Amino acid sequence: MGSGQLFLDLQPALALKNNEWLLQPRPVRFVGYASSDCDFGAVMSVPYQFDGLFFVDRTRASKMLR
Fold it and tell me: Tell me, what's the pLDDT at 24?
C-alpha cells in the first residue's frame, strides 16, 4: 500500500515523442480559484497550463488555526 499521494511532473512530457494524446485539449474543472462565464469548467491542453498534477487519495475538512 502506497502513500496515497502522487505528483506528476508534466514538463518532461512536452519533449517526448508520441505525446499527442497528452497534449490534446481536455475538460478541466477549476474549484476554488477560477471561473469564467459562471462556470468552473474549461477545455485546455494541461501540460501547457500546468507544471504538474497532484493526486491525493484522501482529504478531510480544514480546521481553523488559533
Answer: 93
Position 66 scores a pLDDT of 85
Helices (DSSP H) in the chain: which residue ranges? 20-23, 46-49
Angle (nearest 5°) at CA 28 between 3 and 30: 80
Q: Measured between alpha carbons, how far is residue 50 from residues 47, 56, 59, 60, 62 in Å?
A: 5, 17, 22, 25, 25
**DSSP state letter for 22:** H
- Using CA atoms, how far apart are residues 35 and 61, in angstroms rounded to an integer? 23
Each domain of the chain, given as residue ranges in start order, spans: 5-56
Q: Each residue of 2-32: b (16+ CB within 10 Å) or e?
A: eeeeeeeebeeeeeeeeeeeeeeeeeeeeee
